[in-house]
Amino acid sequence: MKFTCLSKGRGFHFPPCHILNFCGIRILLDCPLDLSALLAFSPIPTLDCLSIVESYNTEANDFDSRAAFGKRQKIEKLLHAKNLLFAEPWYKTVNNLQLWNSSFIDVVLISSPMGIMGLPFLTRMKGFSAKIYVTEASARLGQLMMEDLISMHGEFRHFYGPEESNFPSWLRQEELEILPSELREIILGKDGLELGGWMPLYSAADVKDCMLKTHTLNYAEEACYNGTLVIKAFSSGIEIGSCNWILNSPKGDTAYVSGSSFISAHAMAFDYRSLQGACALIYSDFSLGDTQDSADGDNYSVSAAKLQSISSQDLAGFNHNSDENAEEKEKLDFICSNTINCIKEGGSVLIPIDRLGTILLLLEEMTASLEASDLKVPVYIISSMAEELLALLNIIPEWLCKQRQEKLFAGEQLFAHVKLLKEKKIRVVPAIHSQELLINWQEPCIVFCPHWSMRMGPVVHLLRRWCGSPKSLLILEQDILNLELALLPFQPVTMKVLQCLFPSGIGLRTVQPLLKLLRPKTVLCPEELRLQINLSSENSFSVLYYTEAETLKVPYRKHNSEIKIATDLASQFYWKTFKKEEISITKLKGELRMENARHHLLLETDNKNSSSNSRSSEHCGLPDSEKLMAALSKMGISGNIQHGMSDTKSQTVSIIHIEDPYKASIEIGTTGTIITTAQENVASSIYKIIDNILNAV
Amino acid sequence: MAIETLVLGAGQEVGKSCVVVTMNGKRIMFDCGMHMGFLDHRRYPDFTLVDPNQDFNSAITCIIITHFHLDHVGALAYFTEVCGYNGPIYMTYPTKALAPLMLEDYRKVMVDRRGEEELFSSDQIAECMKKVTAVDLRQTVQVDEDLQIRAYYAGHVIGAAMFYAKVGDAEMVYTGDYNMTPDRHLGAAQIDRLRLDLLITESTYATTIRDSRYAREREFLKAVHKCVSCGGKVLIPTFALGRAQELCILLEDYWERMNLQVPIYFSAGLTIQANAYYKMLISWTSQKIKDTYSKHNAFDFKNVQKFERSMINAPGPCVLFATPGMISGGFSLEVFKQWAVSENNLVTLPGYCVAGTIGHKLMSDKRAKVDLDAKTRIDVRCQVHQLAFSPHTDSKGIMDLVNFLTPKHVILVHGEKHKMASLKEKIHSEFGIQCYDPANNETICISSTHSVNAEASDTFIRSCLSPNFTFQKCSSADACNSTTIGKSLMPMVQVEDERVSEGVFVVERGKKPKIVHKDELLLMLEEQKHDTMSGTF
């Protein structure tokens, strides 16, 4: 088994990406898109923005003429909104994936809706023929997100017009060199090697085509690839439809653990029990860094409590840990109370969050607390996919957490938003300019919308409107890594900004007890984990560490494969016993089949050449010359033995000369016997005699 | 190795489906239904046959329920709460959601209307449902180390599933009720090509072959339209779930197309509540309906209103869906009493009514006087329309499924005795498959697959996979006979790749049996190879 980490990803929205070569099958694990790289681009400029850009451009031209000596000074300059790229954005795919020939990939496994975002780039390539497996819920959510991205991107296309060439000017070396270092790092990566990952956006047709190529799976459904690999998806808990994988093969099982969460208020929780006992476990939850950054007292105590419950061998401890739930609830309450305060002061609240779970909970909490404080402000959800998304969420109970499923069984709506929509407590509109919104628009208000790194869609327009109002409030996720850069085009920002960390991942302290519980034989861990947890003390499994763009060879534990022999074939066996009855041996011939990751040996159905294989035995040991003589004389053949020469070098043990009834000689050597006669039928009759004496198989 | 099948219900009859299958030491109960035609002890399967000591927890590994109809789930609450079974129970999400509605409805009819002593309470239904594990379609559930089960889409009603079970090398499928053709709101049954030892299939329509469903639906719509356009009232007695939604989708569609304003009513809260479930479970319906969810959920009926008792004698035409089906009592009977006397009105009946119900009487002799009980007699003047489409597969569908799966044995359940006998004969003669139609409380024993487990060395596997080409030259005689065009297409050489799997099977005392390549054998035996050559001079 060979494993190569192509990208460690960056948090929830940009999951990791790997290539696995398992049983000769090349498997791509996820195909995400780094949407945070959008930060390098400017949102669509407004009119007054434009004038600045123009002046900047002329300035830049001046600068170009003096570029020979001015370059360095420019780089060190403070970043300004006008430094951003004023062009139709391109998108940053996983750079290392470009190094692989896409037509050599056999299987693609998509673990979450976020992991599908880059897939159309791959599926539209010539020669791409891999089988794509994705859970049905992930596929639907992913498709909505991709379609939303295309529709948001449309604004840029309208603004900048059709592209003149397929190589935009900002990608030129000389342009890149004069970019501020921060932006250059986004575009080129830390090593300056990531330019190849940039692509112009796929079209709606590409997405449609991509979705047609996917093979959707239900929860724990078995999919069999090529007879060799049985693939199963189990919930991972970070998002609806997101999953971990188990790959069964005759060489053993491999488990892939992507970002996972033990507790979820919306998605089905991490099903770790189903991952137990794999030969190799690829641990790909990179949430470790996040938790350390925010390791305040609270977090610590929660993790410690969790650890305790696990070390006491309480298996249920993982899922029924109410502490984390309470923490999540506290966070939501905090956001709600801030929102209420802001509304009371007459400000509007903008919530550009892309996590479904958080949005759904916030909607429920927010409307409840608005009602409780008797505030009547409109709540808008502005997104081209929102209507379909909300409808979809209410019809996939199979991927929801226990509490939500209970609602199904009780006949209640799965999420409160169905009722809220009916009562018009929340309004869903596809875009900022939709008729319904323009008619009903009221401020102050609360707006939910996708964030898309603050570069496109409704969030841009609303930020421009409210950024100067100190009464208004912006609520962001922590995942936006560079807040300063994100808000750069909207400076000066005087509105309040609240950034919240929503934990998504297994968490550092749970890793060790979890791995102990899963009992894999080998664990593949990210290098980052080596410094944080000491897994080497663990005796029950061996640990291998991986880093980006380096191939790790993992030896198979088994050198033999399991095989099932059909009874009708087995009943035809003719046994021979060797070595004092210790070993029984039979020759077998059948039809080898690979089915459901298992070898089967079946009785051959057509016997057209069964006659040809009648006799071709292997012999071992030495023919006993005395025995042979006895057997020969029984057949009426007489001869005399000439024993081998005394010198040890000789290969010949003995020679039997036969005179009567015909002339023949049998030369017995250490590795072979040579029969020499004048007639063929004589040779074969002697052969038969020797065959009987020797141990034939 | 053998698979033992004990038929506790639905053996040569329809009702109280319950089959207990024992294979390789595991015991699975498929369905746990009740018989609608009996009111005494015969309404439940005779559970004492499962275990005379009534220790069901050790006797049964798990229970699997295929769908929410009472003849498949009716005895479940009784079995768990009264008989004390505590083990795992599996059913699909829709079945888990809807089965308690059916059980509760039945309990109400039994206690409130008929004044019988209740066999289980509402709380007991709730308790029973808590023990149920919901499964998704095709989800592979590992019940315990050895037993694996999986649900396949069966059509019939929402959430209906065929169940596959595997213990060791023995594999089987129990179909429950299924439909091989899609209907208004559900898709057709779907299953993988499996290697089965046993297939237990329903055979409600063992000898019927149905024609196009479309024509039958049009007949129904025509009859309804004719009735309401003459100002008549249409009574559609149905059970709350399944048929009601299917017909309602049909009517909604028709109403829209014909721009009809006649109100459609649903009686009682149950059906309205059922629609709420259907809306959430839309992904279990047909592809066509699934695709519409985002704009308009097909179970959001626009023309449907709630019916009040006071409206029974209100003037004007209307269409009413009333529970229970087959006019076996309750509200549908109450309405029937009032409406049956007018020629203008119409009653539609499903294709199958259990003997003893008013529906059955109406079907056997149309336009007659019907005795409700000893005292009441109704002069039935209204029109009666019998629905000619059914959510069960017809005989062709059963044969198709058997042919597709080609199991080693087939057991027929859930059908009428003489029809089953003829289907059994047909399966045996056409496919050469052993087929049985046991009566209730009979046990069928069949043999099952068993294979020898061994290890195979990599060298052996590789040698099996290596190509083994044989070249065959085409004889010129053939080429001469063919035309010139044919000649150019005729290959000169034919290549065949017949791979040979030859090895040596070694069983050493104290070790796992192993298959090795012949070259490896001598190494294993620590012996030297000895060739024998013969030559002539």
From TrEMBL, chain A:
Main location group: cytoplasm
Ranges of residues in domain Beta-Casp: 359-480
Gene Ontology annotations for the cellular component aspect, listed alphabetically: cytoplasm; integrator complex
GO biological process: snRNA 3'-end processing
UniProt keyword annotations, A-Z: Cytoplasm, Nucleus
The UniProt record lists the keyword ATP-binding: no
Domain of life assignment: Eukaryota
InterPro entries per record: Beta_Casp, Integrator_9su, RibonucZ/Hydroxyglut_hydro
Protein name, UniProt field: Beta-Casp domain-containing protein
Subcellular location: Cytoplasm; Nucleus
Keyword set includes Nucleus: yes
One of the Pfam families matching this protein, by short name: Beta-Casp
Gene3D superfamilies (alphabetical): 3.40.50.10890, Ribonuclease Z/Hydroxyacylglutathione hydrolase-like
UniProtKB/TrEMBL annotation, chain B:
CDD domains, alphabetized: INTS11-like_MBL-fold
One GO MF term attached to the UniProt entry: hydrolase activity
Alphabetical list of InterPro entries matching this protein: Beta_Casp (IPR022712), INTS11-like_MBL-fold (IPR041897), MBL (IPR050698), Metallo-B-lactamas (IPR001279), RibonucZ/Hydroxyglut_hydro (IPR036866), RMMBL (IPR011108)
Domain of life: Eukaryota
Nucleus listed as a keyword: yes
Principal location class: nucleus
UniProt-listed GO biological process terms: snRNA processing
Entry protein name: Metallo-beta-lactamase domain-containing protein
